[in-house]
Amino acid sequence: MSLLTMGDTHRGTPENIATFNAQRFRTRSHSTISPDDRIRPYFDVAGFRPISTIAESSIDHKFVLALLERWRPETHTFHLPTGECTITLEDVHMLLGLLVDGKAINGCVMQANSLCFQAIGIGLIEGQVGARGQGINLKRLRLYYDQFWLDDASPQETILQKTRCYLLLLIGNVLFPDSTGNTVNFMYLRLLMDFTRVGLYSWGFAVLATVYQSLCKNSKADSCTFYGCALLVQVWGWWRMPILAPVNNESWTFPYALRFCVKKMDFTLNPRSNITMYRTLIDHLGPHQFICRPCLECEYEPKAQDAEIWTTKCCLNRYNIIEMHHSDRVMLQFRMRQRIPDPLVDLGVWHLR
């Protein structure tokens, strides 16, 4: 019995590819901002130092769409001519520098509006307590951040408030953009209140869970809005398939998304927003044009316990999102022997909820 059950509803069928207007497709991702020097020391404690260095990023919507046409929600893998592959916890850590070992990001999604004033020093909440749309407008939050002045006499709590403001912008713009692209749910502020505990959470798990959910929902033929960390999807594809990537002649360091997050890259051999060319190159991808472990020769040495987590078949979650990390289907990406995968775990009503 086939594992692929979506049939004609999958966006990757020839008929759906031919009829879908690629101009409708968008990603809800925004550029990051450069943090104030006075808040940088807290990034080390919170575990956000690496990703805070990624200040320049733009998303090629057509490349993300081309990858989506190869994504199978039944297996949580891309089906390429070279075989199955996927974005793993290793990619989240190596490309974005996020922690993949720690406490799950979950809990109550509804918080008192007073939490916003306590956390960042101003009330910016839109929507009523308990409302589905309860959140903070990203433009208003950015304006407040830009006007939030710190000096040498600023008390620690004021510095922490601006730090939380920056992290909330990072969450809403890059890590967890929602389907509207305009707001960030302030439920994350509860996790940012105690900076001695922020670094104890597995932010990498939550980012990958959200990316998987968005990939699965957007595998449907009529979907046209990708939320979640599109930056992760894009740099993963460019690292794995250099034939599709722009060229950066400058040096880069950890986190390795920085290779493709700089200005003045050479796009001469890159399809760049040409969905037809992306599809053609992926359709004719050769066995040596997909790199299983592109960051293996890089200078950064991960912790041994992190490497053990990368190969784990487990559930990924972020609040009400639950997705499976099917590492057993892509063991070649870890330079391990590929055995027959275990039967797929059926998440039932929780999948795509």
What does this structure look like?
The chain has 353 residues and is an alpha+beta fold. It has helices at 14-19, 41-46, 49-52, 61-68, 89-96, 114-120, 138-147, 156-175, 195-198, 203-217, 230-240, 275-283, 304-310; strands at residues 26-27, 71-72, 77-80, 83-85, 125-126, 135-137, 183-184, 225-226, 314-318, 321-325. The strands form 4 sheets. It has a 3-stranded antiparallel β-sheet, with no helix packed on it. Strands 5-6-7 form a 3-stranded antiparallel β-sheet. β3 and β4 form a beta hairpin. α4 packs across α12 and α7 runs antiparallel to α8 (156-175). The two termini are 25 Å apart. The model has no long low-confidence stretch (mean pLDDT 89).
Poorly predicted segments: none
Helix-strand pattern: HEHHHEEEHHEEHHEHHEHHHEE
Cα Rg: 20 Å
Name the strands of the widest sheet in spatial order: 2-3-4
Number of strands: 10
Put simply, the count of helices is 13
Percent range for β-strand residues: 5-15%
Task: Report mean pLDDT, rounded to a whole number.
Answer: 89
- Summarize the amount of helix as a percent range: 25-40%
The chain-level structural class is alpha+beta
